[in-house]
Amino acid sequence: MSSSTLSRQTSQPRTTPSPGIKSGLSLRRRRDTLNGWAFAAPFLVFFLVFLVWPILYGFYMSLTGKSLTGANDALIGFSNYAEAFADAGMWRSLGNTLYFTVISTVPLVLVALVMAALLNIGLPAQWLWRLSYFAPFLLASTVVSLFFVWMYNPQLGLINDFLSKFGIAKVGWLNDPNVAMWSIVIATLWWTVGFNFLLYLAAMQNIPVQHYEAASLDGAGAWRQFFSITLPQLTPTTVMIVLLQILASLKVFDQIYQMTAGGPGGSTRPVVQYIFETGFTGYRLGYSAAISYIFFGLIVLVSALQFVITRRRSA
Amino acid sequence: MAITTLTRSTPATGNRQVIRQPRKKLTVGKIAAVTAAAFIAVLWLIPFAWATVTAFKSEADASASKISWVPPSGFTFDAFVNVFQAGNIPLWTWNSLYTSAAITAITLVISALIAYALSRIEFKGKKVLMVVIIAAIIVPPPVLMIPLFYQMLAFKMIDTSWAIILPQVIHPAMVFVLKKFFDQIPHELEEAAVMDGASRLRIFLQIILPLSRPILAAVAIFVFIGAWNNFLWPFISTNDDSLLTLPVGLQTIKSAYGVQYAQNMASALLAALPLIVVFLFFQRQIIKGISTTGLAGT
Questions:
Q1: Which of A169, A182, B92, B280 shows its CA 20 to 30 Å from the CA of A47?
Q2: Which of B80, B112, B137 is the last residue of a domain?
Q3: Is A2's pLDDT higher than 60?
Q4: B109, B125, B136 ranked by CB distance to A51: nearest
């Protein structure tokens, strides 16, 4: 192997003499281009077939009357979009998604921060705390839903039983349209806050100790240190966590579909479920593709915001 | 306590008096912190505890209107026995395991290859490629479900494991996590190999990959957990009972068992067990993996 390599190397300058530096370079560049695309190729195949193509095809579908029954494949322009913008069901589900996003993001960030701050004080048995806060994140949505549907059970559930000891009347956690979304937020908080908690904890542990040493020499207490050192140092992390959480919350589907199926009376149905039902139970693929794209527009908007903010920070 | 404090502090400063005072103050704060942390931990463990207690009850006790942590007729394995006799959980676990493993393996291979190209090779079209892949990070999977389902129908892959696996191997964010790590590996390490005329592939396999084990593990963990717990796409792409993954299979249990609470909880616990056990063994790696990949977006 090495001998053949050697001869190849030495022979190269001879075949391409003195103007050769340039052509040798371009030869190398051509080889690099070939190599580059060869390394990229396997990913690109999947990328094109299972991501780029569905996106393009989805947009095309949204311009047709396509249905799962096969009828009416014809292009109908933007009338699906026109219909969607006039569709009260879509607006309601979009509203539900936004509502969930707002009321879930706040606790999912704040509770994660509190958890990380508590551990960062240097509690003993770190692994135990981490395990108990993070473990739910390892569960599938269906497991979480089974747990919480059972605890939320109005008659036999643990939570109403506990509340009844304080004389509080039974709450219809998943049956009361005014409460159901909050119940889902509580379950979601329990399920995924551990993820944000880990991100916060890692960021806190990266804050140089010297900052704290200097502050404590100046007589700053733990609270002062938290607000004057920890929080400001965490700002970039917080920005990222908030944005990622908003994006994750906008995609909510699993736990709602499993716990309330969007009920009661559509009060928790998120837009992803509306897309799902329009396409797979209503068989209107074209129309549901159009709603997908409206939802996509929303995500792009938030992502653009994220891009601008992170760019400004790093610039 | 005093002794451990002392020994811990002396190597750093050697001055006891200065160190002791803030330490003492902290102890009061620490008690408060432990209390708060413990309170949250108990809250966080209750769902597990209640599910476990329920799973070990008889169905009659589980659905009794008087709620008990210690059931009147004692604990029993009945629910687990019934769940195993129904026979689906092991099959679903296996389905989840091999599809998630395949997804993780394919993701790692194709992502590491392209990440190496983006990090190390100067080639025509690279900039455009990077922009396209970065842009793809924002594509939410639910937007793809309708066209992807239709496409899978056309490929005749619906109701095969391929339908579950193939669309889940594209993780643009992980490509950039890997690229960022490769960027930090000193170029000098490769230059010697380049001098020796080693091919790119050989450099990648023999120099870059061995140095990248931690990040590869991190990406693998992130992708595996995501695949293991993914619900929406496997739910859409499979109807065949024998292909269901754990999360999707559990969804069918709810309707099938109805109000058999003990069996529901036994199934849920059995579904939760594998990853929890893995976590107990690889806690450090998993936490590190999530911390390093988590901020990249999904």
A1: B92
A2: B80
A3: no
A4: B136
